[in-house]
Amino acid sequence: MKITSVKAFILHVPVTGSQIADSTHSISHWGVVGAQIDTDNGLTGYGFTGTHAHLPGDQLIARCIETCHAPLLIGEDASDITRLWQKLARNPALQWIGRAGITTLSHAAIDVALWDLKAKAAQQPLWKLLGGQAREKVRAYNTDIGWLSISDDKLVEGAQRAVAQGFTGIKIKVGSTVERDLRRLAAVRKAVGPDVTVAIDGNGKWDLATCKRFCNAAQAHDVFWFEEPLWHDDVTGHAQLAATTAIPVALGEQLYTTDAFAEFFAQQAIDWVQPDVTRMAGLTDVLRVCDTAHSFRLPVAPHAGDMSQVHVHLSYAHPACEVLEYIPWIKDCFTEPAEVVDGYFARPALPGAGTTPTAAAWAQYRQPVA
Ligand code: MG
User: Fold this and answer.
1) How far is the centre of ligand 1, averaged over its atoms, from the C-alpha of 56 (Å)?
2) Are 115 and 47 in contact (CB under 8 A)?
C-alpha cells in the first residue's frame, strides 16, 4: 500500500445557532483541516485537525501538510504507521521551527488518515483494528447545550432537553464571573436532578485564587470535573488546585506532546485526562497518553476536536476511556456520523476511522487551500 499522493483540504462548517462562545473564544464555524492520502491499491485515507475556521491559519496548516510533510511520505508503505509517525515527528528541519503548533496539527491530520487507510485496507472499523471492543457502550455527555453565550433560561431548557433525549451527562462553560457561573451551575443542577453528571469547563480563563473561590462554593453542586480551570501549560497551578479541592481537575485539549502530559502526571495535577487526536500528532500519540493514564489508573475523556468521529473508535477500544464528548456540528459531513442514541454513542460499523467526507459536505463547505 504505497502512498502516491498527499493533498490538503479545508471545510468550514457552521456551529449550532450560528455563533457560540466560551470564556476565551467566540466562533461561527468549526474548521476541518485535513489530509487526503491516496495509495497504489486504490484506497484513499482521510484525517483532519480541528480549528476555529480562521482561513489564513487553516491555509498554513494545509500548506504544512502539502509542502513539509507530504514529500516525506510519497512512495512509503502507508501501513508503517509507527515508523512514519517517527519520521514526521522527528524531522529535524521541522523540529527546529516548531515542536508544537501548526507542525503538530498538520501531522495529526496525516496520522489519522494513515489509520483510516489501515482500517479500510483491513475492511474493519478502526476500533476493531485497535484491539476490539473494550467496553459494551460509550457514554456520551453533551457540551452543545452549555455555551457561555447561552442565556440562563435557555441554558436550563437545553440541559433539560438533553436529559429528555437520554443524555446522562452534560457540560457547561464557566469563566465569566464567579457569581454568574455559580448561579447557572446551581440552576442546571436543580433542573437535571442528582443523577446526571454535570461537568464545567473554564477554558483556561481564571487565575488560581478565582478558581479556589469558585470551587469552594461549586462543590455543593456535585461537579463531575472542572476542565481547564487555569492556563493550559500551568502545571504547578493545576497541582495546587487539585490538592485543595474535591472537584476533579480535567485537562489535555491544548497539550501537544506526551512530554506535556507527563509533567501533569508527575505532579498529580490531573484527575481526568483529555487528549485529542486533532491536537497531538494524531491517534498514534494519543494512544500513548491513554496507555500512560491507564497505568496511573486515571480515566480518559477524549476532547472532541474531531467532534468524536475518531474518538468514538478509540473510546470503544481503549479501557481507559470512560466517557466521550458530544457536539453535533460536523457529524453529517461524514459517511458515518458519530451518533448518540439514548445517551450512548452508536458503535461504528463501516471500515475506516469515520473520517471520510460526504460529497455533499465537500461541495458545500470546501474552502480554498491557498
Ligand atoms: Mg474544553
Assistant:
1) 24
2) yes
